[in-house]
Amino acid sequence: MPHADTPEPRSRLAKPFDPTPLATAVLVLADGTVFRGQGCGAEGVAVGEVCFNTAMTGYQEILTDPSYAGQIITFTFPHIGNVGVNPEDMEAERPAARGFVLREPVTGPSNWRAAQDFDAWARGHGLVGLSGVDTRALTRAVRRGAAPTGVIAHNPDGAFDLADLQAQAAAWPGLAGMDLAQAVSTPGEPRPWGQGAWSVAKGYAAAPESGPHIVVVDYGTKHNILRNLARAGARVTVVPADTTAEAIAALKPDGVVLSNGPGDPAATAHYAVPTIRALIHTGMPLYGICLGHQLLSLALGGKTVKMAQGHRGANHPVKDLATGRVDITSMNHGFAVDPDSLPADVKVTQVSLFDGSVCAIEAEGRKILSVQQHPEASPGPQDSFALFDRFLAMVKS
Ligand SMILES: NC(=O)CC[C@H](N)C(=O)O
């Protein structure tokens, strides 16, 4: 009971969190927890691993990062939509994420770069969304449940069979053991980056036609990795995830980049590791980013594990063990390299200051650059771009 002298709440903040009578979307976790809110983006049902990203900017880049295949992304930053969406900020042709969860209704765009409204864009891409959720409570539930499975259902009529949605969530197998790289990889033949309709038509600077030739094995590469390689002076060719070492060698690369990508690295290993091992054997300079770093570690004899808490955000401090320098990085991973599994000639060179997990490795006597972070993701905003130049210097040395 309130005290008789308690003043009436005056501010808007004192209103109940979700006063809307009809929930037009729900998120149901496998354990039966239900979050109600307002639907946005596409109507329909989407199932996947529920994760959260703490970045304050870059929602379009996050939603179009192919590494999010099979996932529902909770944005802990409340204002999503304020800069709209535009063709230059796509990290892939289309989003691979399953859906998204927001605190506030989608904010209308107010930015000179905005080409489209976020809500309409999400609808057009079939991304099922939910707003009006207490994302702090959901984030805590995700942390407690170690990446739970969930189902988002968006139906303007507000009719939901919660038991059925929970059953769908419970039946989803989870990301552990799932190979998703092939599903998002470049299909078909090797493609030059920076020439032709794929990139120039979008207004990206053309890649140089000379310079070191870098082959990117596309396990779900973000376009900004390709742009950064081109910026650093490389001629770039993108090949499908299951390309053999012989087919890569036939392209006569000066170095090979193993890209980021979705799913469980151990499930992708059966076709990726033989290729990477053969490349290591030839002495080819290799640069592994995120999933690529995990696959490189597997190829060197290590193991990967599913993390209790994934890392997704733009302010993840990483310490270099040799120099003591700390970089603020962008991260997006739910698996990590097990440091105890690495053979004696492979050293951990960088660790996360959040949980001590492996952030970079070095292999004795080999031209290998291998990082868990996303150096192309502009966290600082340019702190990590130098890694691309470092790789090209390694290629030329
Ligand atoms: N961004 C990535 O490449 C992610 C790698 C891997 N799918 C993970 O979740 O750990």
TrEMBL record:
Claim: Membrane is one of the keywords in the record: no
Annotated Carbamoyl-phosphate synthase small subunit N-terminal domain residues: 23-153
Location of region: CPSase: 1-212
Active site, per annotation: 290 (nucleophile), 374, 376
Highest taxon, organism lineage: Bacteria
UniProt enzyme class: ligase
Keywords for the protein's UniProt record, in alphabetical order: Amino-acid biosynthesis, Arginine biosynthesis, ATP-binding, Glutamine amidotransferase, Ligase, Nucleotide-binding, Pyrimidine biosynthesis
Residues engaged in binding L-glutamine: 67, 261, 263, 291, 294, 332, 334-335
A Pfam cross-reference name: GATase
MF (Gene Ontology): ATP binding; carbamoyl-phosphate synthase (glutamine-hydrolyzing) activity; glutaminase activity
Catalysed reactions listed for this entry: hydrogencarbonate + L-glutamine + 2 ATP + H2O = carbamoyl phosphate + L-glutamate + 2 ADP + phosphate + 2 H(+); L-glutamine + H2O = L-glutamate + NH4(+)
E.C. number(s) listed in UniProt: 6.3.5.5
Pathway involvement of the protein, from the record: Pyrimidine metabolism; UMP biosynthesis via de novo pathway; (S)-dihydroorotate from bicarbonate: step 1/3; Amino-acid biosynthesis; L-arginine biosynthesis; carbamoyl phosphate from bicarbonate: step 1/1
Family: Belongs to the CarA family.
Quaternary data: Composed of two chains; the small (or glutamine) chain promotes the hydrolysis of glutamine to ammonia, which is used by the large (or ammonia) chain to synthesize carbamoyl phosphate. Tetramer of heterodimers (alpha,beta)4.
Purpose: Small subunit of the glutamine-dependent carbamoyl phosphate synthetase (CPSase). CPSase catalyzes the formation of carbamoyl phosphate from the ammonia moiety of glutamine, carbonate, and phosphate donated by ATP, constituting the first step of 2 biosynthetic pathways, one leading to arginine and/or urea and the other to pyrimidine nucleotides. The small subunit (glutamine amidotransferase) binds and cleaves glutamine to supply the large subunit with the substrate ammonia.
Name of the featured protein: Carbamoyl phosphate synthase small chain
Provenance organism: Rhodothalassium salexigens DSM 2132
The gene coding this protein: carA
